Hints:
Layout: H1 3-42, H2 54-76, H3 84-110, H4 116-123, H5 137-160, H6 166-182, H7 189-196, H8 198-214, H9 217-223
Helix pairs in contact: 1-2, 1-3, 2-3, 3-4, 3-5, 5-6, 5-8, 6-8
Amino acid sequence: MSVSAMFVALQGALTADQDIREEIRKVVQALEQTAREMLTLLQGVHQGPGFQDIPKKCQKAREHFSTVRTQMESLKTKFPADQYYRFHEHWRFVLQRLVFLAAFVVYLETETLVTREAVAEILGIEADRERGFHLDIEDYLSGVLTLASELARLAVNSVTAGDYSRPLRISTFINELDSGFRLLNLKNDSLRKRYDGLKYDVKKIEEVVYDLSIRGLNKEATGGAGGEK
């Protein structure tokens, strides 16, 4: 094969690769739009009236996840099944955002941490990498860390809305989350840096709980703990 023929073949491979990336980009843009719509919807829980509308907002968010699953099915067809990590960077950020949104919905519904397997099911992908397009462990953990930051904000806004028991429950949850992350030997630089931010979320929530304590509002919150969440 001549040199020119070799480079013509290489150009063909480059063009095919660029076409794949462009197709992926289009689907990822649609996923990002859906994620933005869900985030805008769920941000409403931070407002005073939003606390009464949490079940309704979670239900609407669940409806958006049906769109996500359809978009994920489309994304799976845009690249060879065995080249997941070759193109992973294209959807990594939006996937982490979607993990956070799924985790936030589940927390608002049950005040528990969603499992990686449950998130994968919500998104319509696999938890096991051997089965194809899957939820990478580090993407799951990144989404969970974003949840911690969101809950720190929710703790502050709960007090503003007069809900004094929620910050106490959030504090318990975040401390359990922090204990769980301490069990991990994180070597991924990006994930490690994000985990370092968790201590600030813990501190922020502790300050909220302390403020409730010195104002005597924690007793009021404990006294009403038997009511609805």
